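Would you mind giving me a polypeptide sequence along with per-residue structure tokens?
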Amino acid sequence: MPSDSQLSGVRAVLFDSGGVLLRPIGGRWNPRADFEPTVLAHSPGITEEQFAEAIAAGGRFLDASSGTPPYETYHRFLLDHLGVAATPALLAELSREVDPATVLELFPDVVATLDELRRRGLRLAVVSDAWPELPGLHDRLGMAGHFEVYAISAVLGCNKPDPRMYHHASQALGLDPGQCLFVDDDPELVAAAIALGYEGRAMCRSGERTTVASVGSLPELLDIL
């Protein structure tokens, strides 16, 4: 694992969201944790095995998509796989706004580290394969006002490692790639950013070994910035 050194030229940090800033309660990102009980309320009798098969197929569907599809498209795919009618009422329930604290949580080190980075004059942005609702979600989880820019796949129509994802954030900040540090829990996406001229660190909260420089927690960024 490459060693860290002081990144004196960095003026901004570009964060991935999931796995870096927040995590799903229960460990699953998609579909939301209330998917099964919501579907069962409309169509009782679906087994755990059927749900598992549909969710696995939904993961492959998302991976094969050129961008992040709308929530409704994703939910329709899952329901079709389950053989459940995608009625307007069911689709509305699956996409209804819920208290973020019931399905997601921030990692404990997030807010204090973001506050300290801003205190030091670092500018902050998010580069995430996510749906358009991400900024509002961040606000409700306690990160309101921390990020100047969002580069969101469902808005831009592309996913990392497409250069447009990284460039949207740095250009909106008015900075060159080399002035930005990109942090993601996927080392391959960090390597892609580095190839484009960005500084990069993989977030390895479980101590995974990587071929790119990494950190095990957000406060470790304070030692190099």
User: Anything to note?
Assistant: DSSP finds nine helices and eight strands in the chain. The beta strands are 12-15, 22-24, 104-106, 123-128, 149-152, 180-184, 199-203, 214-215. The chain has a mean pLDDT of 93. The longest helix spans residues 48-64.
